[in-house]
């Protein structure tokens, strides 16, 4: 699953999706290349629905979704994940009783070389695997500013931190494509900084990977993403560098509200 | 054939009513109550004891039903409420413990011998052509079951329905927005106890009840509730009746030995083919 | 004072997270609480709504000691919370969720319909989804629903844990307008926020750090002070 | 445990607040595993744990030398139930599926072994054979059932379980039908019957505990919990939830049947009525009282169920009520099961004060 | 485990002034009514024997354990009685289905089991059956039906040992009554109180007589339903299911019990047989629950027979002598009066000490003898 430099990692081609007559995505066509891509748009525009179409939870009514050239339609979420697609959820979904580290480790299934049987009998390879994953998970948490309490149960973290644990979980898998659904919601300014640095650092080490971020914190989008796509009423309104996109009058009207555009 | 149908509907009414009691409690308290049949049995035994003192029949009926309500409310207030925040397991286990304790208590107080609830129409039957005779208690059960089901359904049509479901989904959040969860769950448990008392009383009028009878009754009740997807009152009621008919027909035309398993297997097939029971499903978006 | 918190302590199990927080809100005020992630803002909200027990200290609402009053009774006093994570009832429809806001007060059917219409005017997105399962809403729509439900209860004091959570910038902006408008009609607000935009609508700001009061200022003053903005906001 | 509610329940933790904590925690069967002592609490020196385990084993090994046949039997029975609960807990507590065919799988093990022995297969060989047979059967049952959730799963598996026991009754020529069949007891050379049975049980139980613990504290256990708490969302972690659910069915069937083979040896006479609701309910109690989703819960739960009944013998006809009431008290005080005692104390204010005082 | 056996060895549970005996009984659970009766009988007999100075100066010390009518607790209890309490003999334990699970253990320990309540015959040297098995009772009942002229037989049986007993009886006796045929044979599930379709089917087959192999509750239920559907012919159940002499079945059945036929392992409780009268006085005086039931009379008689046997053993209480004395009864049976004479045959057929069963009839609220003790033909 190697992607050529600057090749397309994720591709939507004419994706359409409706729920009981309500059209949510209309002919969405989009290319996501290695690096960061922002996906922004008003509430209910269909951003999360786009992600769900990639990760196998929804099947588009028509159109195609390809990851690294492979069609994902008809694949189960697990099969899509095995293509190297990781994601976070808009409302964080952690395993409440596991610690933060263990929650992150759950994301690493793709890179275990040893099967459960080897693990059962404590074979050295399996132990090494486990150890490596644990260290990697700790390092990731550290990167994202949660190094302090890695062994606390996940349900004891404030909601913002839970989202960050999810980000770390998504990254452990060494994914080709990372889909982040509002990772910064509920975070304070300092934590957003940490998140941005962490993501930048990670991408630096994984230059072939693509990260698609859905976010309403536009500052984060402008800081991270060279390109952003605007989704509006299920259609891609325009794509381009965030600063330009955010100056577009339609975007301003629909998404930002007049004053913001003028002010910020 | 007619005999089979009537017997099936009679047993089906018990199953359906107990299923309703289970669903009602499930609706507001989200507890799978394994002690439901025992609750009804205690209430019924209170009524039977009462009628042993020569009290008039209708007074005994009233006492039985009131006892059912009281038992339900007391159980909710004393045992269930404070556990609700810990999720399902403790609640489920509590009802199991309760069913064991209640069963033993009944044994201590009233003994284990089967009993019946003497009704003015006990033993009376209607002769139909072809040697078929139908017991009046059977007819009473079917009619009362139907009326009871309609009454309960109407009761839950009232505005409290959504509040109850909110409490069941998340009691803490419901209280946060001002829902009096305590009152609602007490109502649910009270109504549940009432229906359970009614069920077992009906059973005791046409058949026999003892500390042994809750075991099979509760399974049938749960199966009926399952057919109603644990949410639909009508689905549960119909499910219970259908279950009663299925097992009666299996007994009559296949084998009485396999009656229970075949009835359950039919339910299994229904579930596999219609994973949401007899009701229209609420599909939730979880991503 | 509508709400007075005095040296309140609380926590989870054996873990104390608020080590004596004091706070006052006057009738008709908009007060914000700021603080870094994990500092105990949500815990403060839970304490006020009665989902976390008060270990020591005092909470007085409208002259009455809240003590161990259960959450639903507090809601009936007009103390309404929009909880972190929204607290939408997923198995209910959008309309049912909205109407649940009426649980905290007695109201005629007509008045209820009027209130609902008002709320739907603020959140038109919800209007054509009333019969849809609440779980099918998008994240932001759910946040609107939660807020709409809270408004349905006509609270005297509305506690909002992260108003802007998951909302598009324009909606946030509109909502701050709504907050201002509601204040005119007599609602008092205590808002936990991460966004500095909140300061623009609020009168006073408390900054919490590590479960303690760190600073209390007029919001305008705080916004004007560059130093404070860079160290606490941005 | 209504299906719909299940899916969206915001998990409440053992901590009171209406924490909208971790999203849809309970997707699977609606199990917000309250115990989950699994991981956070599992730290500590492996060496110390090893020593405790060995010491416990030595103690258990000594039982037949110091105790009479009755006590040996009671301890043996506890171990058998503990093994069975190990499997049940894996299914219910860890994978979050309330599959109620467990008593039937236990019966399959007992009958499989008994019939096998009657046909000349050595007892020891029947243990894995019965286990594998039951595992296959469990997978066959599980295949249609894993798509069902919560109570639908419970009722469906209950139905299949009852049908299996009924089949055993029908297969009278092989199984003796409703009248039951006696089981030829295996004896180790030079050791009397009951002690011999006991040693076999102890060894098998130790192996099962070791392996299951091994599996659950590692990646497999974490994945099961992910499947339990995240349901289909675990798919995005590269986990196939249906596959793991099915594997949990198979494994629990295997373990139940292994326990069943041992049970047959203890009872020496088995009949179908032993394996119906009257067994299933105590089995559930063992899972929950021990602590669903915990590692040592099965042992504690089994001991609770077996030993307590023996202790209550002297209460005569009041013992049933004493048992029920005690059960209720335990749940009221420790909703997460007996094994949550330690955590409850640790996380309480009292515990915090004690720690500070130290 | 230890072996009790050899003649030289002193048997367990016997001291200068005491003999420990034990039993496991369903004091709680579904068979609790029967269990209470069984318990009362043992206690009445023990009190009478001890008040009279015991057996050769040794008083009986009964250890009665509750098994809740579950198999694994029966097995546990027997182990406890033998290994922990070290009883001399197990006397009159309930014959619930768990008892066969103890036979191997009993064989290892050589502990005599005296008078278990209606189990299937294990044909084992340590087990002394003092009353007709369910199969024998059913056989007697089939003969009796034949005598009454019944040609069409309806059967309702449970899917457990009760049903198996009935099957065995049918297999043995039907060939002997060529003009009798089974027109309906329904099986119900133990523990399930849903019996109506079985009843419907049996009634539809228009039988002359109905044989039940069911537990107390089910028998009562079936009786009620049979009568409600207009079936008026004879209905029979064995002693265990009929609660013969007591009220555990006929009480709940109410009016439907009129004319009900029941197996008799001990004499009916209300006859003027002097031995029964004697028991009746003691039972009434005891005030124990179910003391006046047929189950009580049965265990009372078994304990009395046990005392008589031990008396006959003289000073040698070894198990060898126990067997010898018991086998010697062939020539000089123990006659308690309330049960058929006890004459234990020697091995290899086990110690089947009584095969005769009687039939009692419940009329006008009283149990009367319909057929005195007879062996099946
Ligand atoms: N299962 C469903 N059934 C019906 N409508 C749905 C369903 N899922 C999504 N929708 C609708 O589709 C639209 C898009 O939802 P989506 O979650 O993709 O929005 P979004 O862009 O992620 O918005 P937000 O920023 O608020 O999260 C919304 O109007 C929502 O109500
Ligand atoms: N259920 C819980 N159990 C144990 N500790 C908890 C629990 N919930 C929160 N905490 C702890 O309490 C502290 C305060 O958390 P709180 O959620 O109040 O912070 P917050 O200020 O609202 O953070 P955020 O801005 O991220 O929402 C944190 O350290 C957190 O780890
Ligand atoms: C001996 C008794 C325990 C028998 C029991 N009453 C039964 O119906 O089988
Ligand atoms: Mg979204
Ligand atoms: Mg917070």
UniProtKB/TrEMBL annotation, chain A:
Keyword flag ATP-binding: yes
Domain ABC transporter: 10-258
This protein's UniProt keywords: ATP-binding, Nucleotide-binding, Transport
Keyword Nucleotide-binding found: yes
Pfam assignment, any one: ABC_tran
Domain of life: Bacteria
PANTHER family: CONSERVED COMPONENT OF ABC TRANSPORTER FOR NATURAL AMINO ACIDS-RELATED (PTHR45772)
Name of the protein: ABC transporter domain-containing protein
Organism: Pseudonocardia ailaonensis
UniProtKB/TrEMBL annotation, chain B:
Keyword Cell membrane: yes
Domain of life: Bacteria
Membrane topology recorded in Swiss-Prot or TrEMBL: Multi-pass membrane protein
Ranges that cross the membrane: 12-35, 55-79, 91-112, 132-156, 184-205, 217-246, 253-273
Range of residues in the leader sequence: none
Subcellular compartments: Cell membrane
InterPro entries: ABC_transp_permease, BCAA_transport_permease
Positions in coiled-coil regions: none
Keyword presence, Membrane: yes
UniProt keyword list: Amino-acid transport, Cell membrane, Membrane, Transmembrane, Transmembrane helix, Transport
Main location: membrane
Family: Belongs to the binding-protein-dependent transport system permease family. LivHM subfamily.
Annotated protein name in UniProt: Branched-chain amino acid ABC transporter permease
Native species: Pseudonocardia ailaonensis
Source organism phylogeny: Bacteria, Bacillati, Actinomycetota, Actinomycetes, Pseudonocardiales
From TrEMBL, chain C:
One MF annotation (Gene Ontology) recorded for this entry: ATP binding
UniProt keyword terms in alphabetical order: Amino-acid transport, ATP-binding, Nucleotide-binding, Transport
Coiled coil (residue ranges): none
ABC transporter domain segment(s): 3-232
The name this protein goes by in its record: ABC transporter ATP-binding protein
Family: Belongs to the ABC transporter superfamily.
Lineage, top ranks: Bacteria, Bacillati, Actinomycetota, Actinomycetes, Pseudonocardiales
Keyword rRNA processing: no
From TrEMBL, chain D:
Subcellular location, record wording: Cell membrane
First and last residue of the signal peptide: none
InterPro entries assigned: ABC_transp_permease, LivM-like
Transmembrane parts of this sequence: 50-67, 73-92, 99-117, 123-143, 150-175, 195-212, 246-264, 284-309, 321-342
Keywords noted in UniProt: Cell membrane, Membrane, Transmembrane, Transmembrane helix
Main location: membrane
Topology with respect to the bilayer: Multi-pass membrane protein
Keyword Cell cycle applies: no
CDD domains for the chain: TM_PBP1_LivM_like (cd06581)
Protein name: Branched-chain amino acid ABC transporter permease
């Amino acid at each position: 699953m190697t992607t050529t430099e600057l090749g397309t990692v994720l591709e939507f081609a004419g994706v359409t999706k409706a729920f009981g007559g309500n059209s949510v995505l209309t002919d969405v066509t989009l290319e996501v290349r290695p690096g960061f891509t922002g996906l922004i748009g008003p509430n209910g525009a269909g951003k999360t629905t786009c992600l769900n179409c990639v990760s196998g939870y929804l099947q588009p009514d028509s159109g195609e979704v390809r990851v690294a050239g492979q069609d994902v339609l008809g694949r189960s979420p697990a099969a899509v994940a095995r293509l190297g697609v990781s994601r976070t959820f808009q409302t964080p979904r952690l395993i409440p009783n596991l610690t933060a580290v263990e929650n992150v480790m759950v994301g690493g299934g793709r890179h275990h070389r040893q099967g459960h049987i080897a693990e059962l009998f404590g074979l050295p390879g399996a132990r090494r695997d486990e150890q490596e994953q644990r260290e990697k998970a700790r390092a990731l948490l550290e990167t994202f500013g949660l190094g302090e309490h890695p062994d606390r149960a996940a349900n004891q973290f404030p909601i913002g931190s839970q989202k960050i644990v999810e980000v770390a979980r998504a990254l452990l898998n060494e994914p080709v494509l990372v889909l982040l659904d509002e990772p910064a919601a509920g975070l304070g300014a300092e934590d957003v900084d940490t998140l941005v640095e962490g993501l930048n650092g990670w991408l630096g080490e994984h230059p072939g990977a693509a990260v698609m971020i859905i976010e309403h914190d536009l500052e984060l989008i402008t800081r991270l993403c060279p390109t952003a796509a605007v989704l509006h009423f299920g259609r891609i309104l325009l794509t381009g560098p965030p600063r330009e996109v955010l100056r577009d009058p339609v975007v301003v009207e629909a998404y930002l509200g007049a004053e913001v555009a003028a002010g910020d | 054939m007619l005999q089979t149908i009537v017997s099936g509907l009679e047993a089906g009414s018990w199953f359906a009513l107990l299923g309703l009691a289970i669903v009602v409690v499930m609706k507001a308290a989200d507890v799978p109550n394994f002690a439901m049949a025992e609750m009804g049995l205690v209430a019924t035994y209170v009524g039977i004891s009462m009628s042993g003192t020569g009290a008039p029949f209708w007074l005994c009926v009233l006492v039985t039903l009131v006892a059912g309500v009281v038992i339900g409310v007391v159980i909710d207030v004393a045992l269930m409420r404070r556990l609700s925040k810990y999720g399902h397991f403790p609640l489920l286990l509590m009802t199991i413990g309760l069913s064991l304790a209640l069963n033993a208590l009944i044994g201590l107080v009233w003994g284990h011998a089967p009993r019946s609830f003497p009704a003015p129409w006990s033993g009376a039957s209607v002769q139909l052509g072809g040697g078929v005779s139908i017991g009046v208690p059977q007819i009473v059960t079917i009619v009362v079951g139907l009326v009871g089901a309609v009454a309960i359904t109407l009761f839950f049509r009232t505005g409290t329905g959504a509040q109850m479901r909110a409490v069941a989904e998340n009691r803490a959040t419901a209280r946060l927005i001002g829902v009096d969860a305590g009152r609602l769950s007490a109502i649910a448990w009270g109504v549940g106890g009432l229906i359970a008392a009614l069920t077992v009383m009906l059973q005791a009028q046409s058949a026999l009840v003892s500390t042994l009878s809750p075991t099979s009754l509760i399974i049938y009740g749960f199966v009926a509730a399952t057919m109603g997807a644990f949410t639909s009152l009508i689905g549960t009621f119909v499910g219970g009746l259908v279950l009663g008919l299925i097992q009666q027909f299996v007994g009559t035309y296949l084998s009485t030995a396999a009656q229970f398993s075949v009835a359950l297997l039919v339910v299994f097939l229904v579930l596999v083919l219609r994973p949401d029971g007899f009701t229209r499903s609420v599909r939730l978006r979880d991503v | 004072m509508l709400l007075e918190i005095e040296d309140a302590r609380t926590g989870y199990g054996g873990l104390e997270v608020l080590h004596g927080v004091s706070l006052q809100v006057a009738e008709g005020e908009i007060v914000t609480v700021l603080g870094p992630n994990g500092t105990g803002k949500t815990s403060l909200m839970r304490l006020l709504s009665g989902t976390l027990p008060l270990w020591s200290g005092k909470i007085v609402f409208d002259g009455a000691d809240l003590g161990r009053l259960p959450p639903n009774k507090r809601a009936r006093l007009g103390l309404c919370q929009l909880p972190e994570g929204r607290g939408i009832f997923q198995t209910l429809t959008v309309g049912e969720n909205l109407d649940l806001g009426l649980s905290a007060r007695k109201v005629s059917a007509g008045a209820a319909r009027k209130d609902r219409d008002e709320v739907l005017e603020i959140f038109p997105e919800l209007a054509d989804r009333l019969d849809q399962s609440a779980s099918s809403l998008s994240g932001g729509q759910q946040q609107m629903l939660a807020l709409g439900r809270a408004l349905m209860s006509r609270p005297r004091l509305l506690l909002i844990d992260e108003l802007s959570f998951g909302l598009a910038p324009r909606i946030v902006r509109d909502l701050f307008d709504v907050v201002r408008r509601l204040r005119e009609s007599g609602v008092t607000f205590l808002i936990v926020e991460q966004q500095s935009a909140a300061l623009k609508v609020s009168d006073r700001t408390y900054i919490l750090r590590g479960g303690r009061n760190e600073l209390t200022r007029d919001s305008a003053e705080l916004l004007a002070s560059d130093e404070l903005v860079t160290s606490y906001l941005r | 445990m209504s299906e719909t509610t299940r899916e969206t329940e915001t998990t409440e933790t053992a901590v009171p607040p209406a924490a909208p904590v971790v999203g849809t925690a309970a997707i699977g069967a609606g199990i917000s595993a309250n115990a989950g002592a699994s991981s956070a609490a599992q730290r500590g020196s492996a060496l110390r744990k090893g020593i405790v385990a060995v010491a416990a084993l030595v103690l258990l090994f000594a039982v037949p030398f110091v105790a009479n046949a009755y006590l040996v039997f009671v301890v043996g029975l506890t171990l058998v139930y503990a093994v069975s609960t190990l499997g049940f807990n894996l299914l219910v507590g860890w994978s979050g599926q309330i599959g109620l065919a467990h008593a039937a799988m236990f019966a399959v093990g007992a009958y499989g072994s008994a019939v096998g022995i009657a046909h000349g297969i050595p007892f020891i060989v029947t243990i894995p054979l019965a286990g594998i047979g039951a595992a296959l059967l469990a997978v066959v049952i599980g295949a249609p059932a894993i798509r069902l959730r919560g109570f639908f799963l419970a009722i469906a598996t209950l139905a299949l379980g009852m049908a299996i026991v009924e089949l055993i009754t029908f297969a009278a020529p092989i199984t003796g039908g409703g009248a039951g069949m006696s089981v030829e007891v295996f004896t180790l050379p030079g050791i009397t019957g009951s002690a011999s049975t006991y040693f076999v049980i102890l060894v098998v139980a130790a192996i099962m505990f070791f392996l299951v613990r091994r599996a659950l504290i590692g990646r497999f256990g974490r994945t099961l919990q992910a499947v339990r708490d995240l349901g289909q969302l675990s798919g995005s972690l590269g986990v196939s939830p249906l596959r793991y659910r099915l594997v949990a069915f198979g494994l629990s069937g295997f373990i139940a049947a292994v326990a069943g083979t041992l049970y047959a040896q203890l009872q020496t006479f088995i009949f179908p009525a032993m394996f119906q609701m009257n067994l299933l309910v105590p089995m559930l109690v063992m899972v929950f009282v021990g602590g669903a989703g915990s590692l040592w819960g099965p042992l504690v739960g089994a001991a609770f169920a077996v030993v307590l009944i023996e202790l209550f013998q002297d209460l005569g006809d009041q013992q049933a009520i004493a048992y029920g009431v005690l059960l209720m008290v335990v749940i009221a005080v420790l909703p997460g099961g007996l094994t949550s005692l330690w955590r409850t104390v640790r996380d309480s204010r009292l515990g915090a004060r004690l720690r500070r005082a130290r | 485990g230890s072996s009790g056996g050899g003649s030289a060895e002193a048997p367990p549970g016997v001291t200068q002034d005491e003999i420990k005996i034990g039993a496991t009984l369903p004091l709680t659970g579904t068979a609790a009514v029967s269990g209470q009766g069984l318990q009362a009988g043992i206690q009445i007999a023990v009190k009478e024997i001890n008040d009279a100075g015991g057996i050769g100066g040794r008083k009986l010390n009964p250890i009665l354990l509750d098994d809740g009518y579950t198999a694994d607790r029966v097995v546990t209890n027997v182990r406890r009685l033998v290994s922990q309490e070290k009883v001399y003999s197990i006397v009159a334990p309930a014959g619930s289905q768990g008892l066969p699970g103890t036979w191997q253990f009993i064989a290892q320990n050589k502990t005599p089991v005296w008078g278990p309540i209606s189990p299937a015959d294990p044909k084992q040297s340590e087990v002394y059956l003092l009353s007709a098995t369910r199969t024998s009772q059913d056989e007697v009942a089939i003969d009796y039906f034949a005598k009454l002229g019944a040609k069409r037989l309806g059967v309702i049986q449970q899917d457990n040992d009760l049903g198996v007993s009935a099957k065995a009886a049918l297999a043995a006796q039907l060939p002997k009554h060529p003009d009798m045929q089974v027109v309906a044979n329904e099986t119900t599930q133990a523990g399930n109180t849903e019996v109506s379709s079985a009843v419907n089917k049996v009634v539809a087959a228009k039988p002359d007589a109905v044989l039940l192999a069911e537990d107390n509750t089910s028998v009562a239920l079936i009786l009620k339903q049979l009568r409600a559907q207009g079936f008026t012919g004879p209905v029979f159940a064995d002693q265990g299911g009929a609660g013969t002499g007591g009220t555990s079945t006929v009480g709940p059945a109410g009016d439907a019990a009129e004319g009900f036929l029941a197996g008799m392992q001990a004499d009916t409780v209300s006859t003027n047989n002097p031995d029964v009268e004697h028991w009746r006085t003691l039972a009434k005086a005891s005030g124990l629950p179910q003391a006046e039931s047929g189950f009580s009379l049965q265990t009372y008689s078994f304990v009395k027979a046990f005392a008589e046997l031990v008396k006959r053993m003289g000073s040698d209480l070894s198990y060898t002598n126990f067997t010898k004395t018991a086998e010697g009864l062939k020539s000089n049976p123990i006659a308690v009066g309330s049960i058929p004479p006890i004459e234990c045959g020697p091995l290899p057929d086990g110690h089947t000490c009584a095969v005769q069963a009687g039939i009692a009839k419940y009329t006008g609220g009283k149990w009367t003898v319909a057929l005195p003790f007879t062996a099946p033909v």
